[in-house]
Amino acid sequence: MRELRRAIAAGGADYWLRDARAPAALVAGVAPGPADGQGLVRFDLKVEQGRIAAIAPLGTATEGPDLDGGQVWPGPVDGHTHLDKGHIWPRRPNPTGDFLGALTACAEDRAGWTEADIEARFEWSLRAAHAHGTVAIRTHLESVSPRDPVSWRVFRRLRDRWAGRITLQGCSILPLDRFGGEDGALLADTVAEAGGVLGTVTRLAGGVHDRMPEEFQPMLDRFFALAEERGLELDIHVDESGEAGARALIEIARTAVRRGFRRRIQCGHCCSLAIQPEEFARATIAACAEAGIGIIVLPMCNLYLQDRVPGRTPRWRGVTLVHELRAAGVPVSVASDNTRDPFYAYGDLDMVEVYREATRILHLDHPVGDWPRAAGATPAAAMGLADLGWLRPGAPADLLLFRARGMTELLSRPQGDRIVLRGGRVLEAELPDWRDLDAVLGTGPG
Fold first, then answer.
1. Which residue among the candidates 119, 123, 142, 240 is catalytic per the annotation?
2. Sheet containing strand 399-401, strands side by side
3. For residue 422, which of 397, 402, 391 has the smallest C-alpha distance?
4. Are 443 and 419 in contact (CB under 8 A)?
5. Rounded mean pLDDT of 382-406?
6. Model confidence pTM above 0.90
């Protein structure tokens, strides 16, 4: 890969990448050749002035860097993260590793947040995602203090500072009951002014995702109304538990249909759907399809948090019914979620890792089919960034190049030697050092 990196760097603004492979599902339009048994197509790709100029049949190019059958993917999109709370684990670990422990630890840490603290951790996270090759991120922002929206101020600064490197979207997050009264309207105004997405959690303040209270529907209608009045899209944390009483997803879908809500809705987690009776699960999936809801799955975080009982092996994977949802026409994405905070002790905002682990946890293989879109084109569409996540002429040459040829080669290693292209140029960014956070966190190793 070092030789390939040097060859591309020496190629100038216009060059061919010869003998590349990619999942046919990521090539927009007519593929330049037949797909093999793994769903991969082989081709030559031309870069001109920072964009993909052509995707041509293999053998078209007579010169240019040779990928030797290695894969090329479009830059990935991370549609569900929490950048303002990232990397607090060293100073605020989750002693139980479960959902309630995460809520408690995060609330304790949040009480001491300052703009400088948030900004340092937030930007460190963007540096990591950028070095890994991610081109767009949606982050949920702690919004429990709508009269002092500190995370939103940091977000707006970093969104502008990182423009042209990572497209950054912001989304509110706080319990559903907190949208009542003047504070709910004030937060919705803050989101609208920032060009953000209105988000909530389908649990009440201080609680977990379990049986819905009687006042759930009026609160949900209030949330929808705030979005409708301001023309906002929705992104909701839903049913993040293994409790059969957590049945908010179907109510969200029915509410969207009843109200004629026309803007995009994304629902994350939806874990409890996997433990519902079959008939109810089918009805919920049908309602999501009718409402046009997209589902985003956070496989690593959910596997970490769900069904965690001291001294007992977990009995389920904590993830939702991705294959059944997609079979019904519901778009399904995967994303990083939390990174090194009480909700997930690990992670590095690397969408290659997310896709690799999602394949293993969710069985996104045999065949792979079009699941590679779940880490790029599908979340991009949910974010209104329909041009991202595809290999197509005219798109920016923001690409990941791998030495791996087949899918098992790709998914068997972390691909730490990948080459990241931004605008057709080799990205020289390095992953940030953990030690850069020591002074911010006031701690040592995490």
1. 240
2. 72-74, 399-401, 419-422, 425-426
3. 397
4. no
5. 97
6. yes
Active site (annotated) includes residue 240: yes
How far apart CA 287 and CA 310 sit, in angstroms, is 36
Going from the N-terminus, what domains does the chain have, and what CATH number goes with each? Answer: 2-75+390-426 (2.30.40.10), 77-382 (3.20.20.140)
Helix axes 278-291, 248-259, angle to 10 degrees: 30
Q: In 3D, which of 161, 84, 68, 81 has the Cα closest to residue 118? A: 84
Contact 133, 418 (CB under 8 A): yes
CA distance 59 to 258: 55
Assigned token pair, 72: 């090329």
Span 385-392, mean pLDDT?
96
Q: Provide the H-helix boundaries in 136-277.
A: 150-161, 181-193, 216-230, 248-259
Tokens standing for residue 49: 């002035």
Contacts of 76 (CB under 8 A, 6+ apart): 133, 134, 135, 351, 352, 355, 375, 376, 389, 400
CA 188 to chain centre: 23
Extract the tokens encoding 254.
């029915």
d(CA 69, CA 402): 9
Mean of the pLDDT values across residues 38-57? 97
